[in-house]
Amino acid sequence: MHPISLSRLLAASASATSSPRQGGVNPSVIPKSFGITAGEGRDKIQVGSCTGANNKPIPCFCPPAPDSPEFLRKLTKALTDGFIFSREQVALPITLAKFNDASDTSPETNKLRATAMIQVMQNFNLTTQGVGCPGVSAPVLGVMQQTGRIGGDASNLGNSGK
């Protein structure tokens, strides 16, 4: 076993955490918030539901956190496969490589990123089409899909304090 300096070990560890793991999604191109906090507004609009954008009822597990390992894993799988299910259903509009390219901040690419994230959320269990989180559970992605801006203002659509 070769001795390794502590500083080299820490440097290697730091670089591994600041970049996407090989084959995974680059979290730096994902908004830090989707504008809704899962579990907020329980039973206020509809019994058994929580509150989404524009006071629409959503499942209380929606949306996943942008840095949720489960969300990132499912997004990576879908982007790698190019489809959520089969080739006849729910094709993703962007490849994993293009999604991960943080140097591409064009509105067109950001719109494609938002569309892919929304598609994964809407089909979150990845086994039954349409079983997941509706678009109103992630208003920031809706704004991003329309404008191409990451972190667009959707504060008036969220459920903070509701």
TrEMBL record:
Organism the protein comes from: Staphylotrichum longicolle
The organism's place on the tree of life at top rank: Eukaryota
Protein name: Uncharacterized protein
